[in-house]
UniProtKB/TrEMBL annotation:
Keywords: Allosteric enzyme, ATP-binding, Kinase, Nucleotide-binding, Transferase. The keyword Cytoplasm does not apply. Belongs to the ATP:guanido phosphotransferase family. This is Protein-arginine kinase. A motif (RDXXRA motif of the pArg binding pocket involved in allosteric regulation) lies at residues 338-343. It is an enzyme of class 2 (transferase). Residues 24-255 form the Phosphagen kinase C-terminal domain. GO terms for cellular component: extracellular space. It comes from Oceanobacillus limi. Its EC number is 2.7.14.1.
Length: 355
């Protein structure tokens, strides 16, 4: 298995599966931050020390298997091209920060892409595990088991009072970030999402864009995650997050129903105009594409559009990102060239779906 295995498909195998409330919740993710007890943390360590940690992971875990997951592949970040790194970021397999930490950083990715491990990012280890739909508890159980598997060969930096020790104080304690990726077009259309933000923050949660901290919410996709890691158990954090997510799901469903009851013609016009743009445009920018894809996905979920699968929209959201476009073209593209290729790929993919 080579890097091309992870580059050639826009969506990960686990994303093709349906999960609870998957019309609104695209994915559930658990990320655990860990550090080695007897090593300087990445923010103060020198390159030589970090290279030793990277090489340890390569030796111990490359091609290793965990439970039902196929073997892990190991990739030093410095050996990846800028396009390859960007594609892995676009698929959420690594973070933008890891892509910049070229000297001694690496990643391990399971064949089905459900689990990835970032090595020498902000912490020595940042493992993340995904499930489709709203499955936070199941994801947490699997993450704990994977964490225990790693710990068989690693002594973690841990304090009996403070919990797991991390480079950033905001991660000390559980070291956990639990998040869900939600598609909330009706709440965005009715302007309700802006009013809900302060209330969500009061629960110790934060709303971010599709690529996490510092990213913009495009295509009405929002990442909801915990801010607090100290003073609560992992189960308590999951319970609080799931409670808020379920309320957002309920509000989104009600907003969709109201739009259908009160503005069905306008809503259908918006959806079919977006479909027309995607099917016939010869040039389209990423933000416009994301907005149109969001509208069409809403149309699929409301059964207004019946001949396009939801997975196609998931695929196109990733396939039309800059890294993937340049990987597909096998060359660096200007912004205008990306916009032209993006429109072409969307047209061709939708045409295949309708045959």
């Amino acid at each position: 298995m080579t890097l091309q295995h992870f580059m050639n498909e826009a969506i990960s195998p686990w994303m093709r599966e349906e999960g609870p409330d998957s019309d609104i919740v695209l994915s559930s993710r658990i990320r655990l931050a860990r550090n080695l007890a007897d090593s300087k943390f990445p923010i103060i360590a020198d390159v030589k020390d970090l290279e030793e940690i990277r090489d340890f992971f390569k030796k111990e875990y490359e091609h290793a298997t965990f439970q039902d997951l196929d073997e892990f592949e190991f990739f030093p970040i410095k050996e990846l091209s800028s396009v390859e790194k960007r594609v892995l970021v676009e698929k959420h397999l690594i973070s933008p920060l890891l892509a910049k930490n070229a000297d001694a950083a690496a990643t391990m990715i399971s064949k089905d892409e459900q689990v990835s491990v970032m090595i020498n990012e902000e912490d020595h280890i940042r493992m993340q595990l995904y499930f489709p739909g709203l499955q936070l508890s199941k994801a947490l159980t699997k993450a704990f088991e994977f964490d225990d598997w790693l710990e068989e060969k690693i002594n973690y930096a841990f304090d009996e009072t403070r919990g797991f020790l991390t480079s950033c104080p905001t991660n000390v304690g559980t070291g956990m970030r639990a998040s869900v990726m939600m598609h909330l077009p009706a709440l965005a259309l009715t302007k309700q999402i802006n009013r809900m933000m302060p209330a969500i923050n009061q629960f110790g949660l934060v709303v971010r864009g599709i690529y996490g901290e510092g990213s913009e919410a495009v295509g009405n996709l929002f990442q909801i995650s915990n801010q607090i890691t100290l003073g609560k158990t992992e189960e308590d954090i999951i319970e609080d997050l799931e409670s808020v997510v379920k309320q957002l799901i309920e509000h989104e469903r009600k907003a969709r129903t109201r739009l259908m009851e009160q503005s069905s013609t306008k809503l259908e016009d918006r959806i079919f105009r977006s479909l027309g743009v995607l099917k016939y445009s010869r040039i389209i920018e990423s933000k416009e594409a994301a907005s149109c894809l969001s509208n069409v996905r809403l149309g699929i979920d409301l059964e207004i559009i019946k001949n396009i699968s939801r997975n196609i929209l998931n695929e196109l959201m990733v396939l039309t990102q800059p890294g993937f476009l340049q990987h597909y073209a096998k060359k660096t593209l200007s912004a205008n060239e990306r916009d032209v290729l993006r429109a072409t790929l969307i047209r061709e993919r939708l045409l295949l779906e309708e045959k």
